[in-house]
Predict the structure.
Amino acid sequence: MVRQSVPFLICIIYLNVRLGAAEPAPQVSATQPGVRLTLVAEHPDLATPTGIDVDDKGRVWVVATHTHMRPDDYEGPSHDEILVFDTSQVQTSQRQVFYNSTTATMDLELGADGWVYLAERDRILRIKDLDGNGTADVEEELVVLTTEADYPHNGLSGLSWHPDGDLVFGLGENFATPWTLAGTDGPAIHGAAQGGIFRCSADGKNLRWIAQGLWNPFGTCVREDGEIFAADNDPGERPPCRLLHIIEGGEYGYRRQYGPESHHPFVCWNGELPGTLPMVHPTGEAPCGVVPLGRGLLVPSWGDHRIDFLQLHPKGASFTAELTTIAKGGRYFRPTCIAQDPNVGGSKRTWYLADWVDGRYNAHGFGRLWKLEIDLNQADWVGPLSIEPPTKAAQRAANLRSGKTLLAREELLQLAGDKDSFLARSALVALSRTANQWEIKDVLEWSAEDRVQATMALEFCQADSNKWLPLFLKDKNQAVRFQALRWIANSDLKAFLPNVETLLNGSEISFTSFEAAMATWNTLQGKPEAGIRDVDVLLARVQDKSKTPRLRAYALRLLPAQSSAAGEADSLPAKKFPNGLTLQLLSELHAVNHEELSLEVTRAAAGNPQVAQELLLEIANNQDHSAKLRAEAIAGLAAIAASHLKTLLKLTKDEQRVVREEALRSLRSIPLSAEQKEELLELTKRYPESYDQIVVVLEPESLKSDRPAFTDTKAWLQLLEQVQSPADIENGSRVFHHTQLGTCSHCHRHNGRGNTVGPDLTLQSQRASREALLMSILEPNREIAPEFQPRTLLLKDGRIFTGIRLRSYTKEQIRDAHGQTRTFDKGDVELIRDSNVSFMPAGLVNTLTNREIRDLLEFLLNNDDSDAHLNKRDVNSIKTSKNY
C-alpha cells in the first residue's frame, strides 16, 4: 500500500476507498505545527483495530477484532487477529498474523522476553513464539474475570507497564454485574457496580485493586516517574469523558448500579463528594488511549475524530491541564489506541494509531493504521520534555499512601479535610490502616468533621459495619449520617434496611438526608437504579397521611415535573404532573395547613401554572397565608401573568412587602395602560422601600443605566454593597427559580429543585467566592468550563441545535438548554462545532435590580440546606465550576 502524508495545515487525505455506497473517504488534517500523519495500512489488511504497540525493530503489533458484537452476516475470521506490520518496507507494510485464537480482544502490550500481553473482555493472557516461526505457540492465562456480563468493551482493557515491572490495567463498569477477578496466586478480588484500575506482576501475581469509581478506563499509561493516568469514558448522562490521575487508594466517584439519571446523591464525576477525586481535565468523546509526551499526554478521541495533547501543570498533589488539538479528522477517522515507537528519538517522535474508521460498534470490516510524527523543532506547543519533579504536596501525599510518612491520628484527620483533594484522599488512605483499632467511645468524642472522616476511613478499610453503622446512623450530625447511608448503599448492606426506614421516617430529617435515605432505601429494596426518582414510591409517600408533613413535602419536591424526551426545537419542555399527582391531591395537601408542605404544593403547582392557576390564585390572594407562601404562588403565576393582570395589579398594593414586590416582579414585560402605569407610580409615594421594583416595571431600560461594565466585577461588588436593605435569601431563591426573570433553575439544580444541564449549585458556597460567582453571572462566556461547553449541530435540512454532547457513535446525542435529550442520525448532521457561547444568557443582570442580584448571590452563597457535605474540599477549580 502506498503511504500518504499529511503535513501541517496543507494536505487533506482523500483515499480512494469505499466504505459503502454513500460513504466518503476519510478527511484528516494536522492542526498544529510539526505534526504529520501517514497512512500505513487499511482494510482489508486489518479491521476494527483496538490494541497497539511497537517493538524494538519498529514493527507495529495491532489487534484486529472480528468478534466485537459480530453480525450474523459478517465475513471474516472467527477469532480476533494479532497482526504484525513491518513498517520498514518502503512501499508496502508487510503483514503477518501472529495469533488468531482470542475473542473480544481489547488491548495489546508487548512485554519482556518476547511475551505479548493481551486483554480480552474477561481475561488477561500472554502469548509467545517459542520456535521462532513468527506465530505464537504458547499461551498463559494471568488474570481471569468471572462474571455473567459479556458486553465486549466494559470489561478488561487498558494495559500499560509500570517502571517497576508491574502490569497496570483497567476494568469497566461491567453493567454493575457482580464479578470476581483472580490472578495466578493469592485470594480473588470481588466487586460490582464500578470500573477500576488494577495492577499485578508480569506473571499475574500480587493482584490488587488500586483505584475505583471509574466508568470505563479503556486507556491507561504510566510515566517514567511512576505517575499513572487513565482515559475514562463517560456514562452518557454525565459528560464529559475525563483524564484521571490515578493514585493508590483513589476514589473517582462513579457507581454504575445507580442507573442513568444525571443526579444521584452518591454519584459524582468531578470530585464533588467528600473523599472523591476530580478529573485532571475533560477529554474528547470516547478516548481509548493515552500516552506520555514530555510534560503532557496524547489522547486520541474516537467520538470527536481527533488527537489531543494535554499539557500537564502541577496543582498541589496532582495536576491540571491545557488541551490542544493537534489533528482533526472527519466522520471516518476514529482513532482508538496509540503507542510510541521506541526506536525514534532526538528531535523526532513517532507514534502509531489504530483507527476504527466507522461509528458502528459491531465488527464491520473497516480499519486503518496511522503513523503520527511530531517534529519537536517545529512543535512549539509541546513545551519542555523533561518531567517536572513532584511538588512538596505530591511527595507528601505519596509518602502518606505508601506509609513512609507516619503521622498522628489527629494530623491525619486534619489532612483528610484538606482542600487539596489528592492530599486529603492520601491522608484518608493512611487513616484507614489503623481504623480497625479505633474504639467507639473514643470516636464519639471526636468533632463532627473528624467523625465524617472516620466514617469514610472505616468504609475504605472494610471495617465491621455491624459495629459502626448503627452508631453513625444515630449521629446528631447529618453529614455523618449521610456518609453512613452512602456506605450502606454502596455496599448493599440489606441488614440495615430497618435502620434506614427509621431514619427515613424521622421528623427532623433534612432534605439532603431524606434524599440520601431515599436512594439507600431503593437500593436495599433491590432497585438501586431508581435512585431518588421512583415515582410510585414518592407518590405513595406523598399520599401517606401517616407521614409527617415535612416528609410528604420532601417526597413531593422529588417528583419529576417534566420529561427528558425532546419536544419542539427551542421550546421550553412541557411540564405536567406525573400520573397520580392531581389538583385534588395538591389541594388536600395544602389543606393540611403546614407551611413547609404548602410551599412544596405551591412550587409543584407553579410547574404547571396553566392547569393549577386556580390553586395559585387562592394562595396568592389569601391574607391568612404567610407572606412567603403567597409570594411563591405569585411567582408561579408569572408565566401566565397577562391572564391575571387585574389580580396582580391589586396585589401590588398589598401591605406585605414580599407579596407586593413579587407581584411587581411578575408584571415586567407585561404591556400596561397609561392609567395602570399612573397607579403604579403613585405607589412609589406609599411604598418608597419598593421604589426600585416599581420603577423597573415602568421603565425596564432603567436597569441598564448607571451600571459598571460587565468586565468590572469589583465595581459591581461595590455597587451591590450600596444596597440599603438587608439581604433576603428567600427573595434570592425566588429569583433563582423564577420562570421569566432569573430562570437559573432551567439549567441548574439547587436542593432538589431545577434541572441538570449545568452544575448543581447546592454547594456553590463551598466552591466559589462571591467575586468569582458574580463574575460568572456578568460574563458567562468568559470561561466556559470544558464539561459544560455547548456544541452546535447544523443539520442537512438547515435546522440548528445546540447542547452538551452526551454520545457520538452512529448517532449524535446532546442535552439541550432545557435539559432534554436529542438524538440525531450521524448522516443527518452537516456540521458540528464547539460553541463559545454559554447556555447562561449574557446580560442577565440587565433583567434584575441591584437588590435582586445581591439577593441571588446571597442565596447561592449561604443556602445549602444542610451540612451533609461538611468539610468538603474545593476540589473543583473555578475554571471548571464557575461558568456554565
Q: What stands out?
A: Residues 333 and 446 are 57 Å apart (CA to CA). Residues 1-23, 866-884 have pLDDT under 50 and may be disordered.
